[in-house]
Amino acid sequence: DAKTTQPNSMESNEEEPVHLPCNHSTISGTDYIHWYRQLPSQGPEYVIHGLTSNVNNRMASLAIAEDRKSSTLILHRATLRDAAVYYCILHPTETSYDKVIFGPGTSLSVIP
Amino acid sequence: ETGVTQSPTHLIKTRGQQVTLRCSSQSGHNTVSWYQQALGQGPQFIFQYYREEENGRGNFPPRFSGLQFPNYSSELNVNALELDDSALYLCASSILARGDTQYFGPGTRLTVL
To answer: Which of A44, A93, A104 sits opposite B98 (nearest CB)?
Structure first.
């Protein structure tokens, strides 16, 4: 099962951009890359996902390496509400989530 | 659009007891997945239901079982509770499709004494 590796923790100053890296060297050709985040005392929240091309939405941008072995979640201007654990996971194309593996994620701290 | 809801919020049980946790899926979603999240860890997949049938299972023993109802609400049942079952239990609903997004509920915090 394809796994991802992320730094345990990162810090950012408020209103500065944040780049959260994720390595997924064993990704298969049809795995989607998904990012979720989990605020304290809440369930995970979808952030963004992509397959091959870079993606933008109102929350963040996702930059995917050309070989797809790594990706970066970009928060353009960190706010205090962005302090959370960020998970990078791979979604295979099979119609079951039994191969979806959440690691411990990256705990992002935002400094005022 | 109503989001995913779970009940109860918190629960305390003793070892050996049985527990039922409930989840109400987001409107229009036909798939529900259950996860166990230990403190400081990412969620671990327990199982998934699609149109009332189990459609994938993680590495959990048979004492973890579930149901999905015609209105796509769901239950997670755990028999013979063990101390290690203490965790946050999350359900997530989705429209089953390749690479589709899951929408998580706030979770039920289970403590086993």
So the answer is: A93
